[in-house]
Amino acid sequence: ARQALNTQANELLGADIVVSASQPLTAALFEAAAGRTLERSDVVEFPSMLRGTQGNELAAVKAVSGRYPLRGQMRISRELFGVDEIATTIPAPGEVWLEPRLAAALRITVGDSVELGYITLRVSAILTHEPARAAGNIFSMAPRLLLNNSDLAATGLITPASRVRHSVLLAGAAPDVAAFRQTV
To answer: Rounded to an integer, what distance in angstroms lies between the CA atom of residue 5 and that of residue 1?
Structure first.
């Protein structure tokens, strides 16, 4: 029963371990994971305005890398309120996924473009389910925009005054996870 509860909790987090800070995480953290068979995904979260052709909306921006989420599954749809499917990747560079509430507020459909900071991105899917979203976070009031971490710098939105949450998600075999937890 305890193992099942841990598995469910990890799926809500999207990983076995999540380390978060308001500043980029140090190299020492990554060195602690070296030599262990842990998968990693880097996540940066912050609120920002998103511009569409029909106006602006506040979005909970989440930039992800790697095989996000490491536990659980995201679900996407190719149209607003359409049938969804399991996402097998993250958004490609130059693309974003929007939660239905954000797409509806901006009157955006898949294939349309939005502006985030200094860049224009194509909406390639509607994000219908994200495991980490169910667990809640400090930006959960605004609807989610998910993008590839490789597009983050080009937005110009991360500055010293930005309210940003940096996270590293890790997952792996129980002994490696326990050893990393002990080291940290």
So the answer is: 6
